[in-house]
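Board notes (copied after class):
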Amino acid sequence: MRQGSCHGETRICRGHSKKLAAALRYQLERKATDEFLLDILTEEPDAAGIEDRIAEPLELSPDHLVYLIAFNRLMHDRQYGAFGGAAPISYVAVSAYARDFGIVGDAFDVFLRLIGALDVEYLAHLERTKPAKSS
């Protein structure tokens, strides 16, 4: 990761968190379906209407991919409550990961904020997809 690629910015990397959150949403909600539809299209090139149902994934820079890969590695390093609620990824887990990969100083501050933004999106996804309680 390029250290300081967002150095000096007043907002977190000027919109990087929004683009990363959108990429994570795509990964969680559409990617598997789109890959399945692409497989069908490969096997049946004349399948009607399939191409129209496949979403265009966001193009991510290598810098963005670093954060998304890190989040995918850290996303299950969290505690779950007795009734199934997921807690945010712990600072200890994020800090250890960053230390292992030499992410320090200002780069660590950005890393911590972007992983936190991705975690907020992931927890929101869990809430959106939680089965409705039956009465």
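Comment from the instructor: The radius of gyration is 18 Å. Residues 15-128 form one domain.
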